[in-house]
Every structure is written in structure tokens, then in C-alpha cells.
Write a structure and sequence with these properties.
By secondary structure, the chain is an alpha/beta fold. It contains 14 helices and 16 strands. The two termini are 39 Å apart.
Length: 453
């Protein structure tokens, strides 16, 4: 945890990156990637000796923290035994990973199709739903992110969809519930739930229920703001799907495997989907892995009919070995329970206390180690601190806030006018309090851009 600084090596790493690496979601000439020298637990550090508390879990995926020794050892052991094998073979580590995942999924989601990540999981879930129903349309929410591949990016509701939106992908968007910024003029969670479900029903009626293959929702919306659905909403969507023969898909890529203080976020809401997509926390991203958990009914569709989909690295042995080690470590070490406890006793109370003192914090949302602060110019009007999809000078207040976090040794997860508190599920009470203290200091910068300043 006390790395040796070597700025010259850091400069060389950065030079090679700038010469040859093409980065995602970026204007290549405007970015300044931080050269990372190492990581352990809840921290990572650069070559200049600066250490950062990872309140982003990278991309909300290092649920068991960095360099967990049991997972590192499992990858090393598997590499010595069998590095790779085609998906068509039965392999002990692949079967065990599938068994352990199926053990935790809700209901009868007992068949596991492995992918390389979350976007591919969504692609295949949608394909399964369309083939199972013989229908083409898929409904998804505007406030959502489902991945960057062809179908997944069209399903995505946020602006990252716009440059790749074909307008012909069979996707229809609708408004999900979000009381703080309600589109239904609701005043209570119960009203928001009722009106959001009515809106979804009307959307289905006007699109034609017989044309809709699936509705896909993030169980708890992630990047778009850690939006926890109101009581009864997911159960209501389940009932609508059942009534119209629509496949219900829950995207648990970000919310799954301990992030919300449960193995899956669906466990909070007592709802069972027909398909469930996962990735990220299944092995904390140590080796790329994702997948689809499939209900018995949909799996039976392909008992005698070939499923037309596959990946060269589906169920890769190194990835599956890391998943087995991750899931076993999470159980043995009480990591899911730790996420729940930290959320209940430290992060939740601490973030709400920050909201009381800082005029820039409009709302605190979340549970477990999955929280968001909605930053505003004015608490009374809920006006966001920066405009929707702001960039450049328009985004300066959020950029200044993020810079203040990093200056205080905290690496934040910032999206539009929100900052998310999403540390590893293994974070300690002391580390969580350290993060809250750094947030407290950085929020004073955001406060300067409010009407109260």
C-alpha cells in the first residue's frame, strides 16, 4: 500500500498510451489518462506516489476490491492447468461457475449462457427473447445504459446512444419512475409507481402488445443515477409482461453480486425475471466475463432448436476460475453482508448528513455500496448543477468538483450532474469515512456554483 514512486516510468507509460491506445467514449486529443502503477483493496496509485481511494470501483465492477489474493491465486492456478478451451466442451471450472451463479439467481434461472461482458449479455438476452416470442420490438427506459454493442446501444436511453442510433432496431423507449425528477407530476412514491405503470401500459397499447418481445430494465438504474424503483413497480412490470406474453429482462450487470447489499438487486423487490444479465461483479472484472441467466421456459425453446449465437471465449476457463474464486470468497468473507452493513451504518447516514449541510446536494439515493448524490444549483427547484449532457464550459462546475475529489485522494464516479459513491463491497468503515470526508471537502467547490453561494 506504499508504492515506490517512479515518475520517469509513469511518463513512459503515458507516452506509449498517447502514441498507440485509442480510448473509449473519448475525443482522443482532449484526454489525459492517469498512468496507474498498481492497486490493492480499495485503493490504486500512480507513478508519482499519489494514492486514490477508489469510490468508483473503476467502472462499478471491482466489487471485491483490487488484487484479492484468492482470486489472483485461482487465475494463476487455472493458467497452469488449462488456459483455454472452446465453448463446446464440458469443463469443470465452467460448470462450477455456472452452478454457483445459478445458486444465487432468483427463481428458476438455472441455465447460464456465458459472454465476455455485459453488453454481449444484453445482446444475447434480447436475441433469446425475440426467438422465444417470435416478436421483434423491445422496450427500454430513457434513463438507462445497457452497453455499447449494436442492440445494447439502441436499448440504452442516455445520450451515448445518439451517434449510433439506427432508428430501425425495433427499440421503443419509455419513462421509468424517478420521483425526484418525475415526468408524471407525482408527489409520492405510490403515485409515481402507479403513474409510471400506467404510462408503460399505454406505451404497450399504442405499440401493439403482440409486437413486443421483451421489456428490459436495470433492476436499479446505474449510470443514469442509481434510481431505486418505488415499491411495487417491478412487480407491476412483471404482471404486465405476464398478461401480454412479454419476456421480462432484468439487467443486473452493475447492480448484481453484492453491490446493493444483496446477491442480486432483484432480491430487494421479490421479483423473478425471465432473463437476467450479469457481468462486472461476478468476478470483479479480473478477467472479462458476463452472461445471461435463463428461465426454464426460455431454455426449453432451444432444447431441439439450435440457439443461433455464440462467442469464441464464452465461458473462458481463466474467467470462470476467477468467478468461482470470487463467489466463494464473497460467501466465506461475508462480503455481501459487509456491503449491506456499510450502506446502512456509514454511507447512507454519512451521505444524508452531507446533503443537509451542502446546498449543492439535492437528493441522496441508494443502498449497499450503490449511492448517488444528485447535485443541483437550487434545492427548491431541483435545477441540475450542469445542464443535461453538458460538455466543455457548461460542465465546468462538475469538472471542478471532480478535480477537487482527486486532489483530496478520492477517485469519483461522475456522470452529468451526479456523483456516485460506489466503492468496493469490501470497503471498511474507516475507508468509507475517509471517502465521506473527501466528498465533504469537494462539495464545497460544488456549493460555489449554487444559488446559495
Amino acid at each position: 500500500m506504499n508504492p515506490l514512486a517512479d515518475p520517469q516510468v509513469g511518463k513512459a507509460v503515458k507516452a506509449a498510451d498517447r502514441a498507440h491506445v485509442f480510448h473509449s467514449w473519448s475525443a482522443q486529443g482532449l484526454i489525459d489518462p492517469l498512468p496507474v502503477a498498481g492497486a490493492e483493496g480499495s485503493y490504486f496509485w500512480d507513478y508519482d506516489g499519489n494514492r486514490y481511494l477508489d469510490f468508483s470501483s473503476q467502472l462499478v465492477n471491482t466489487n471485491i476490491g483490487h488484487q484479492h489474493p484468492k482470486v489472483v491465486a485461482a487465475i494463476q492456478e487455472q493458467a497452469g492447468k488449462l488456459c483455454t478451451i472452446a465453448p463446446g466442451f464440458a469443463v469443470d471450472v465452467r460448470s462450477e461457475a455456472a452452478r454457483l451463479i445459478a445458486r444465487r439467481t432468483p427463481g428458476d434461472l438455472d441455465k447460464i449462457f456465458f459472454t465476455n461482458g455485459g453488453a454481449e449479455a444484453v445482446e444475447n438476452a434480447v436475441r433469446m427473447a425475440r426467438l422465444h416470442t417470435g416478436r421483434s420490438k423491445v422496450l427500454s427506459a430513457y434513463r438507462s445504459y445497457h452497453g455499447a454493442t449494436a442492440a445494447a446501444i439502441n436499448l440504452t436511453g442516455d445520450p451515448r446512444r445518439w451517434p449510433s442510433d439506427t432508428g430501425s432496431a425495433g427499440v421503443v423507449h419509455f419513462w421509468g419512475p424517478h420521483l425526484y425528477r418525475s415526468h408524471f407530476h407525482a408527489e409520492t412514491e405510490a403515485q409515481e409507481c402507479e403513474r409510471a405503470l400506467a404510462h408503460l401500459e399505454e406505451t404497450i397499447a399504442f405499440e401493439g402488445p403482440q409486437t413486443i418481445a421483451a421489456i428490459i430494465l436495470e433492476t436499479v438504474v446505474g449510470t443514469a443515477g442509481v434510481l431505486v424503483p418505488p415499491p411495487g413497480y417491478l412487480a407491476g412490470v412483471r404482471e404486465i409482461c405476464d398478461r401480454h406474453g412479454i419476456v421480462f429482462v432484468l439487467d443486473e450487470v452493475m447492480a448484481g453480486f453484492g453491490r446493493t447489499g444483496r446477491w442480486f438487486a432483484a432480491d430487494h423487490f421479490d421479483v423473478v425475471p425471465d432473463l437476467l444479465t450479469f457481468a462486472k461483479g461476478v468476478n470483479s472484472g479480473y478477467v472479462p466475463l458476463g452472461g445471461v441467466a435463463i428461465s426454464a421456459e426460455i431454455a426449453a425453446t432451444f432444447d431441439r432448436r439450435p440457439y443461433p449465437g455464440g462467442l469464441t471465449y464464452s465461458g473462458h476457463p481463466l474467467a470462470c476460475a476467477s468467478a468461482v474464486a470470487t463467489l466463494n470468497a464473497m460467501e466465506e468473507e461475508g462480503i455481501v453482508e459487509n456491503a449491506d452493513r456499510i450502506g446502512e451504518t456509514v454511507l447512507g447516514p454519512g451521505l444524508r448528513e452531507l446533503a443537509e449541510r451542502h446546498p449543492s446536494v439535492g437528493e441522496v439515493r441508494g443502498f449497499g455500496v450503490f449511492w448517488a448524490l444528485d447535485l443541483v444549483k437550487d434545492k427548491a427547484t431541483h435545477e441540475p448543477l450542469v445542464p443535461y449532457n453538458a460538455a466543455g464550459e457548461a460542465n465546468a462546475p462538475m469538472a471542478a468538483f471532480a478535480a477537487a475529489c482527486k486532489k483530496n485522494g478520492l477517485w469519483p464516479f461522475v456522470n452529468m450532474n451526479r456523483t456516485h459513491a460506489v466503492p468496493p463491497c469490501t470497503i471498511t468503515e474507516a475507508e468509507a469515512k475517509e471517502g465521506l470526508s473527501a466528498l465533504d471537502a469537494a462539495l464545497t467547490v460544488a456549493d460555489e456554483h449554487t444559488t446559495a453561494a
